[in-house]
TrEMBL record:
Designated name of the protein: MarR family winged helix-turn-helix transcriptional regulator
InterPro entries referenced in this protein's UniProt entry, alphabetically: HTH_MarR-typ, MarR/SlyA-like, WH-like_DNA-bd_sf, WH_DNA-bd_sf
Gene3D superfamilies the record matches: Winged helix-like DNA-binding domain superfamily/Winged helix DNA-binding domain
Domain of life: Bacteria
Domain HTH marR-type: from-to ranges: 11-145
Native species: Actinophytocola glycyrrhizae
SUPFAM superfamilies hit by this protein: Winged helix' DNA-binding domain (SSF46785)
Length: 159
């Protein structure tokens, strides 16, 4: 009796391929950001700037959104302030609270990132075809819960 080799891909390959695709896009993004004047930007900065958002955020809120402690969020904010991507300002709602807001440089980074991601997606379309890229995106929308999740930092803690 002849055995037919299984065509089933091992389950562990899927997360590795998804992560590899993510990593490829992020690495290419940061290569291009460096060429466009943001050589100091790191992937964690993008997550933090997205979590801060257009309305701003307190360090506590930022920590919750990123899945890190208030102290870790504060260190991230300190770094982003030094790099000129955010600023601290008094809260209009609570004079005791400080709100972290995006600066024009931070907004520039986000706008450039968006344009670069559009170009990277276009490269995937040229390589794979529009239908295949659309199918991958549709499939991921089916299995990935809605809403942005930027708390990836929490995956790497030993708690």
């Amino acid at each position: 009796m002849t055995r037919v080799k299984s065509l089933v891909t091992p389950g562990y390959e899927l997360p590795l391929l998804l992560f590899g695709g993510f990593r490829t896009l992020i690495d290419r993004l940061h290569e291009e950001l460096a060429r466009q004047g943001h050589a100091d930007a790191r992937p964690a900065h993008g997550f933090a700037l997205q979590a801060i958002g257009p309305q701003g955020s307190t360090a506590s809120e930022l920590g919750r959104r990123l899945g890190v402690s208030k102290q870790a969020a504060g260190k991230t904010v300190d770094r982003l302030v030094r790099l000129g991507y955010v600023e601290r300002a008094a809260s209009a709602a609570d004079a005791r609270a400080k709100v972290v807001r995006l600066t024009p440089r931070g907004l520039d980074l986000l706008h450039r990132s968006s344009a670069i991601f559009d170009e990277l997606r276009s490269e995937w379309v040229r390589t794979l075809g529009a239908d295949q890229v659309a199918a991958v995106e549709a499939a991921l929308r089916t299995v990935v819960p809605p809403g942005p999740r930027v708390d990836a930092v929490g995956w790497f803690t030993a708690e």
